[in-house]
């Protein structure tokens, strides 16, 4: 199932800007899609949800982001991967995979159970009638619960249990017993519509699980089970149905259920364990088994979904919740009649009994617990079949389902693309289960920007790729999550190229991913891509924005380097071999490297041939070490240069910190003689002589994960070459030049003048990628410069870079039909966005005129909602709304506010709200934000705050609101702490004066938790003030000099 949304260009930069806001919004209202083939995984939902909806998890997220990172400019996603959506995608955790082969049922030979899709209590598996009853009858009521609060005997001194308190440790549960099958029965008391009411049982879950396992002996059974799960009776039986008395159920550790049996089990014998339990659906957090409201006509209804990555399966039913323990699942869901239950597998039977419906699903193939998935809703669906008959359904809120068609249309081609790529047919009858937010899943031609379409395609392609890479073959432990995510991130771009019959995306997106990853990875304290197998992965997941960049983006670049090193075809062959060798099993990166190397060595050529190191040797330097190298390029003569590596240090230390890190760096180049790709190796710290072969830059296609630093003469020559013919340097390299020089200037390693000189050619630039990189840095500079006395100087520089391109587009007509999927279209979008934001007069004027026209055309009550009267191009809307509200009247605000209240589509609502937050009026501001907060079931405050933080109005309206309305602040802190946290981040973002810091401190005094959570943001505000004081004058001076030099150059031409 899928939940969908819309994206827009402005998200792009907003997320750059608000690095600490990167967490995706959670707008659970709409669509869901069930991709039919069985392997379901859901993903996008995943973290996005967790972050935004919860009151607690975001907090953790935000507070763990390193403070440096918060404010750093990011190369953001291009419109194609617009903000929220991109985030969600990258966050996307893998979800489920259920795999049931289409033609043959997969049953591990060790499984004692028939492959049929028996219902869980089927007598086929020889279960006793007592247990069968237990599953049919709600045997759980509070009176039978055994007290489980006491705890005996296990101590962390026992080496087996030393990690037991560590939720995220691989060795938390000693893997003594091997689960083979879980029979999961869940009864969901979902008041899905107002007329359905279970009283105090509303949102309760009654559950029963029967775990079939092979014992490793001993008298203890440990399972993961969340402490919120109220566990009732536990019954253990051996394979002859003889019950073994459970002496005690220990609950001494919050995540673990610890059963002490009266007698020892026999090593190698199969047992069953029956556990009854009762728990609550999550309502605040989209994690575990959760319910979410949506609007159906005048009613508020509820749907249910799951998101279990990484360790939430234990909140749904007791299990051994680690990825390397795969088992099969028989799922039975009892849900209110009128709703439909979907799960990983195809349903086997549906029995209606009055107000309850029981849906039984076929048995899954072996899979990890985090892939378990289900959803219950009254959503209608669209259905499609692949050419091989794999069924996919897209479930969606009825009012949006007409915008879900693209989603349905994308699935089958993507499946077929992967079947071909991986050489393994999709093994299930239906697509499993994927959930996605509305914001990511809806698209309607002509009404949504094309970027939304590509986002959607990429997300689906990412998730579906996991059906093979992640679900069919799963990492042993989360330390290798990078492999799944990096690969899915990379391959999904290829899939979109396939869908769109293009080839440019792969290279372009790689450049973008690299830019974002470098930006994160240069910060102190970053984790390597791959941690130790026994490490606690929790810390990897806590700081989500950073993790996102490392686990998804850096790893995708590393994987792309591997692909280039061993050549594309060999890489593909290796993957096929890897997947078929580890089908339904777990593997780690060593397993993959071994297979790739085997394939590489068995073929002719490849860039490792003749070297005295292996692929693993090379890759260890990239995945085991955090950070990355910078390669210094110094000219000897002509094309002959020396290349020398060292670790890139973003922060300047005096004296310099010793660093011993060395990488095995492949420098890719095109051999001018053979015109083949070649590799020049830099494997130690000594300078090596290299012939650039007439190229202006090293690694022209930006294939290696590193920064480059040229000597000053070379920078001058490069600048000149760009001014004379910028296309003599490939677009990715133009983007990289801007990125590297800006990054190095940031901490004084180089003058900003070098960077500004490089950008001077951009008045002619037509490619999106360099603009995007440039734009990302604006998110860093603009809030610092805007209120500075030298702003006019800097603005003059910006108008020079952006004004020319804007005028060109404007002269052609901003509504001119450009292929939405073209580089030029994206360029136009970002140029207009930035020109309007910096207040470039022609752009502001255009916006005002168009808004006035909108008011004339759409003023009638019934017209407000109509899209027909709105002639403004989608890509221009939020800029038009913003400028209108910024420079307009109270009537303009009222008009737009009314429109926002009526609007159904989240994407348009977001555009409108972006405009509303540009108000300069305190009363309007209060009105807009309070309305947004009130309506938070429908939209994400965090994302809106992120977008609004971009507005260049030096206001403290929101600070005033909270400062003066202490009761409101208190109320939010008690009822919506996450929302408040988002808003307070925005407040700090707008703090530019010492007196406002004082106000802020005073305001938060009664709320020490927020003071703590926002300490990093507050620190950033102070750093911005310092930057303004000490760096801004030089910064502006450098800009001014660059302008003069440009003038001189133009006079000479
Ligand atoms: Zn993924």
Please describe the structure with a list of short key phrases separated by commas or semicolons.
single chain, 1053 residues, alpha+beta, Immunoglobulin-like, Neutral Protease, domain 2, four-stranded antiparallel β-sheet, 36 helices
Helix and strand layout, with pairings?
Blueprint: H1 9-17, H2 45-53, H3 57-64, H4 67-71, H5 83-91, H6 129-136, E1 178-188, E2 204-214, E3 218-224, E4 230-238, E5 243-244, E6 246-250, E7 256-265, E8 270-280, E9 288-296, E10 299-307, H7 313-316, E11 328-336, E12 340-343, E13 347-353, E14 356-361, E15 374-377, E16 381-385, E17 391-395, H8 405-422, H9 438-441, H10 450-468, E18 474-475, H11 481-500, H12 504-521, H13 538-542, H14 544-566, H15 568-581, E19 586-587, H16 589-601, H17 615-623, E20 629-637, E21 640-647, E22 665-670, E23 677-682, E24 688-691, E25 707-710, H18 712-725, H19 731-746, H20 752-759, H21 768-785, H22 791-812, H23 823-837, H24 841-857, H25 874-887, H26 890-902, H27 906-916, H28 922-934, H29 941-948, H30 957-964, H31 966-975, H32 977-989, H33 994-1004, H34 1008-1013, H35 1015-1030, H36 1032-1052
Parallel strand pairs: 1-11, 18-19, 20-25
Antiparallel strand pairs: 1-2, 2-8, 3-7, 4-5, 4-8, 6-7, 9-10, 10-15, 11-14, 12-15, 13-14, 16-17, 20-21, 21-24, 22-23
Bound molecules: zinc ion (ZN).
Residues 43, 92, 94, 462, 466, 485, 488 line the site of zinc ion.
């Amino acid at each position: 199932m899928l939940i969908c949304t819309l994206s827009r260009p402005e998200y792009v930069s907003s997320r750059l800007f608000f690095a600490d806001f990167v967490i995706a919004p959670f707008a659970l209202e709409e669509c869901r899609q069930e991709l039919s083939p069985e392997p379901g995984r859901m993903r996008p939902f995943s973290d996005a949800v967790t972050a935004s909806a919860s009151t607690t998890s975001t907090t953790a997220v935000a507070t763990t982001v390193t403070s440096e990172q918060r404010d750093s400019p990011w190369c953001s996603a291009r419109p194609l991967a617009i903000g929220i959506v991109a985030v969600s995608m990258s966050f996307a955790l893998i979800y489920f995979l259920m795999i049931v082969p289409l033609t043959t049922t997969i049953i591990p030979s060790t499984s004692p159970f028939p492959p049929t899709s028996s219902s869980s209590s089927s007598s086929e598996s020889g279960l006793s009638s007592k247990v069968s009853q237990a599953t049919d009858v709600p045997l759980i009521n509070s009176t039978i619960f055994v007290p489980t609060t006491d705890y005996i005997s296990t101590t962390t001194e026992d080496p087996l249990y030393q990690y037991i308190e560590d939720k995220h440790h691989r060795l938390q549960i000693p893997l003594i017993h091997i689960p083979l099958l879980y029979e999961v029965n869940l009864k969901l008391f979902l008041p899905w519509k107002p007329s359905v009411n279970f009283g105090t049982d509303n949102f309760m879950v009654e559950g029963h699980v029967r775990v079939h396992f092979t014992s490793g002996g001993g008298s203890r059974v440990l399972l993961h089970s969340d402490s919120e799960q109220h566990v009732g009776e536990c019954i253990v039986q051996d394979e002859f149905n003889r019950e073994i008395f459970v002496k005690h159920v220990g609950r001494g550790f919050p995540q673990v259920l610890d059963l002490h049996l009266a007698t020892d089990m026999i090593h190698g014998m199969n047992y069953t364990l029956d556990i009854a339990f009762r728990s609550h659906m999550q309502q605040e957090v989209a994690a575990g088994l959760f319910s979410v409201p949506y609007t159906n006509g005048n009613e508020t209804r509820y749907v249910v979904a799951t998101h279990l990555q990484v360790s939430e399966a234990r909140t749904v039913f007791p299990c051994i919740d680690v990825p390397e323990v795969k088992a099969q699942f028989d799922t039975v869901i009892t849900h209110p009649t009128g709703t439909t239950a979907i799960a990983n597998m195809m349903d086997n039977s549906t029995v209606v009994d009055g107000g309850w419906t029981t849906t039984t699903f076929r048995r899954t193939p072996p899979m990890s617990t985090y892939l378990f998935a289900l959803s219950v809703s009254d959503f209608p669906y669209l259905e499609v079949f692949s050419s091989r008959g794999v069924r996919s359904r897209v479930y969606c809120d009825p009012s949006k389902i007409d915008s879900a068609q693209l989603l349905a249309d994308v699935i089958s081609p993507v499946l077929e693309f992967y079947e071909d790529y991986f050489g393994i047919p999709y093994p299930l009858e239906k697509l499993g289960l994927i959930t996605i937010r509305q914001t990511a899943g809806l698209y309607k031609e002509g009404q949504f920007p094309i970027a939304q379409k590509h986002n959607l395609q990429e997300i689906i392609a990412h998730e579906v790729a996991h059906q093979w890479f992640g679900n069919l073959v799963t990492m042993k432990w989360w330390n290798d999550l990078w492999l799944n995510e990096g690969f899915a991130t990379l391959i999904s771009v290829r899939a979109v190229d396939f869908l769109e019959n293009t080839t440019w995306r792969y290279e372009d997106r790689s450049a973008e991913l690299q830019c974002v990853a470098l930006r994160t990875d240069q910060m102190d304290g970053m984790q390597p891509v791959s941690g130790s197998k026994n490490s606690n992965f929790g810390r990897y997941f806590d700081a989500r924005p950073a993790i996102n960049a490392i686990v998804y983006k850096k790893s995708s670049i590393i994987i792309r380097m591997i692909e280039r090193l061993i050549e594309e075809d060999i890489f593909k062959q290796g993957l096929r071999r890897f997947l078929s060798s580890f089908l339904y099993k777990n593997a780690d990166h060593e397993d993959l490297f071994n297979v790739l190397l085997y394939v590489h060595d068995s073929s002719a050529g490849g860039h490792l041939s003749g070297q005295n190191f292996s692929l693993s040797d090379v890759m260890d330097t990239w995945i085991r070490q955090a950070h990355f190298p910078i390669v210094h390029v110094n000219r000897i003569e002509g094309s002959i240069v020396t290349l020398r590596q060292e670790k890139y240090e973003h922060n300047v230390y005096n004296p310099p910190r010793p660093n011993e890190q060395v990488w095995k760096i492949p420098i890719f180049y095109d051999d001018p003689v053979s015109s083949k790709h070649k590799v020049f190796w830099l494997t130690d710290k000594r300078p090596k002589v290299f012939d650039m072969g007439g190229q202006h830059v090293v690694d022209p296609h930006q294939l290696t994960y590193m920064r480059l630093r040229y000597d000053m003469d070379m920078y001058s020559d490069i600048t000149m070459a760009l001014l004379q013919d910028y296309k003599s340097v490939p677009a990715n390299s133009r983007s990289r030049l801007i990125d590297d020089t800006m990054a190095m200037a940031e901490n004084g390693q180089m003058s900003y003048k070098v960077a500004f000189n490089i950008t001077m050619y951009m008045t002619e630039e037509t490619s999106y990628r360099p603009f995007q990189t440039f734009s990302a840095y604006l998110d860093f500079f603009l809030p610092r410069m805007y209120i500075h006395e030298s702003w006019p100087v800097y603005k003059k520089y910006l108008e020079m870079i952006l004004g020319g391109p804007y005028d060109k587009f404007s002269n052609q007509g901003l509504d001119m039909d450009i292929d939405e999927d073209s580089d030029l279209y994206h360029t136009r979008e970002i140029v207009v966005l930035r020109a309007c934001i910096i207040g470039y007069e022609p752009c502001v004027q255009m916006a005002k005129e168009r808004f006035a026209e909108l008011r004339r055309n759409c003023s009638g009550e019934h017209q407000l909602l109509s899209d027909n009267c709105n002639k403004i191009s989608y890509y221009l809307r939020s800029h038009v709304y913003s400028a209108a509200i910024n420079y307009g009247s109270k009537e303009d605000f009222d008009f737009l506010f009314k429109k926002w209240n009526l609007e159904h589509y989240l994407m348009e609502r977001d555009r409108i709200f972006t405009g509303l937050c540009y108000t300069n009026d305190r009363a309007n501001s209060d009105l807009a934000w309070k309305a947004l907060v009130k309506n938070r079931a429908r939209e994400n405050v965090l994302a809106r705050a992120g977008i609004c933080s971009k507005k260049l109005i030096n206001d403290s309206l929101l600070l005033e609101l909270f400062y003066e309305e202490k009761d409101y602040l208190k109320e939010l802190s008690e009822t919506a702490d996450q929302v408040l946290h988002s808003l307070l981040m925005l407040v700090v973002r707008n703090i530019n004066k010492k007196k406002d810091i004082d106000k802020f401190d005073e305001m938060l005094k009664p709320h020490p938790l927020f003071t703590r959570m926002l300490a990093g943001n507050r620190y950033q505000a102070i750093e911005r003030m310092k930057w303004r004081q000490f760096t801004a004058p030089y910064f502006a001076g450098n800009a001014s000099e660059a302008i003069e030099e440009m003038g001189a150059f133009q006079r000479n031409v």
